[in-house]
Every structure is written in structure tokens, then in C-alpha cells.
Design brief:
This protein has about 270 residues and is an alpha/beta fold. The protein has a single domain (about 15-265), classed as Metallo-beta-lactamase, Chain A. Helices cover about 15% and strands about 25% of the residues. The strands form two sheets. The chain has an eight-stranded mixed sheet, with helices on one face. Strands 7-8-9-10-11-12 form a six-stranded mixed sheet, covered by helices on one side. A hairpin with a 2-residue loop joins strand 7 and strand 8 (about 140-145). The longest helix is centred in the last third of the chain and has 11 residues, at about 200-210.
Length: about 270
């Protein structure tokens, strides 16, 4: 799935237009996603563009592939970090985005503390609180509990009547079951460092009554991944609707009644 047989849609985001009620989700690897909306919002979550983990952990943490887009041409308006681990608050990726864009950077206190040490100005930092609602253009988002580090968080996005739940890194715990009405679940499945297993992601999907499950946090770091084909096999057996996304490719989402319709940009 990581052979580059098509152009990167991230590199050409300015060329894409979104018409209501659709919006775009693009997976950039690991736990990184980019949302693009009809109201002009471009939101990036947990971008990991560098190879900084290998510098701390050695060759077993070397990236299996690299992003195709040029980060100098990537200009999100909002960057969200779910917690302060390197592949979520990356000390090499975030300063580049800071330099080449006018983005606001938001996350839990631990992530914001790291960004202050990177000399980000306070006017471009937003420390988030779990349970509070925030708005960026036409997107409402709420940080929610994640069972991982002390102040880890996931995010629930409300876009065009669709509720998208990004779990962040988390183990399975009761507070995760409180998010009723989730339509799209972006769930970690790597089962490392306490994260959800493939089976636990299915449990969360069913408990929330979600309509579509998208896996993340796999396929990039050799010592922190899982075989996604096992995910597909398990969910076919469980009759769970899932979508394995290609990297850096635009997928258009919209709600039609009780169904979430998805189409991939060619």
C-alpha cells in the first residue's frame, strides 16, 4: 500500500475544492491525518514527517517509508497534537510547519510545553482542556480522554453533521464508551505501549454504534506496528464496515441519512 503509484494530494491541496456537505480526510501515516472542509479549514493531527524516533531508539525504529509531499508546501491552519510522544509532538516536524505556515498549534499542556521550548510564540499556541468545545472555521472539536500518558487526549470533530472520533493513543477503558453518536472512528490498532488491539478497536466500534472504522498507527515504525491484513480479516468476519486508507490520498466523506458515504479522489 505504500508504493507511490499516484501523486500526493497533500502536495496539491490548494487545487482541491470541497463542496458541502462533503469534507476530506487524508491519512499521512502513523496517527497523522489532515482534514479539509468546505469552509476552508485545513486541520492536521499528529504529523510525523521526520525520523526522530530512530535518533532516540535506534535502527528498529527507523521509518519504513517517507512522506512524498514537500513540507514547505504544506500550510494547515490548525495543528493538533494528542500527546507529547515523538511521533505525535515531533520536535523536527512541528518547527518546519511553524516556519512555512501561519498555523495555530494546539494540544495538552505537555505538548504545549515542548512547543514553548521550540520557541513557538504564545499567540500561535492553544492549550486544550478535555471536555471543552473549540471551533476552527466550520469545524467544532472537543478534546476527550485517552488512556495513555498523563494528559493524552483524543478528539471528536463535528463536520457537516458527521461526528468523527480520533482516539489518539489509548488503551480500552470505560470513559471511551461515553461518546455516543460517533459516525467515523479513527482508531489506533498497533497494540503496542498499551494501545488498542485489533479486537479492542472492534469492541469500541460496536459500543459506540459507529458506522465506519478506519485504522491508524501502523505500517510506519517496524517495532511499533501490526499487520493490517489481520485487521481486514477480523472485521470481515465480524461484519464491521472498515476502510484501510492509502497514504496522502483524499477521501471525501458525507452523511446520507444514517449512512456515511465515502469516495476516493482519483
Amino acid at each position: 500500500m505504500f508504493n507511490w503509484d499516484s501523486r500526493s494530494h497533500i502536495e496539491e491541496m490548494a487545487d482541491f475544492r470541497v463542496e458541502r456537505p462533503e469534507f476530506i480526510i487524508n491519512w499521512i501515516g502513523q496517527a497523522g491525518f489532515v482534514f479539509q472542509t468546505a469552509g476552508g479549514a485545513v486541520i492536521c493531527i499528529d504529523p510525523y514527517y521526520s525520523n526522530s524516533i530512530e535518533r532516540y531508539e535506534g535502527r528498529p525504529a527507523r521509518r519504513m517509508w517517507y512522506n512524498k509531499f514537500k513540507i514547505a508546501n504544506f500550510r494547515p491552519g490548525l495543528v493538533l497534537c494528542s500527546h507529547d510522544h515523538l511521533d505525535h509532538t515531533d520536535p523536527e516536524t512541528l518547527p518546519l510547519i511553524y516556519t512555512y505556515s501561519d498555523a495555530v498549534f494546539a494540544g495538552p499542556p505537555s505538548s504545549i510545553s515542548h512547543m514553548r521550548r521550540m520557541r513557538f510564540c504564545n499567540e500561535r499556541l492553544l492549550e486544550l482542556k478535555i471536555g471543552e468545545k473549540y471551533r476552527f472555521r466550520d469545524v467544532v472539536y472537543t478534546p476527550v480522554f485517552a488512556a495513555h500518558t498523563e494528559d493524552s487526549m483524543g478528539f471528536i470533530f463535528e463536520i457537516e453533521g458527521v461526528k468523527v472520533y480520533f482516539t489518539g493513543d489509548t488503551s480500552l477503558s470505560a470513559p471511551l464508551f461515553e461518546h455516543e453518536g460517533v459516525d467515523v472512528l479513527l482508531a489506533c490498532i498497533n497494540a503496542k505501549y498499551g494501545n488498542l488491539t485489533i479486537e479492542e478497536a472492534a469492541v469500541l466500534y460496536r459500543r459506540l454504534g459507529a458506522k465506519l472504522l478506519i485504522p491508524m498507527h501502523y505500517g510506519l515504525i517496524p517495532n511499533n506496528t501490526v499487520d493490517v491484513s489481520l485487521f481486514v480479516q477480523h472485521y470481515e468476519e465480524e461484519e464491521i464496515r472498515c476502510l484501510v486508507m492509502d497514504v496522502e490520498q483524499h477521501y471525501y466523506f458525507k452523511k446520507a441519512g444514517e449512512v456515511i458515504e465515502v469516495r476516493k479522489e482519483k
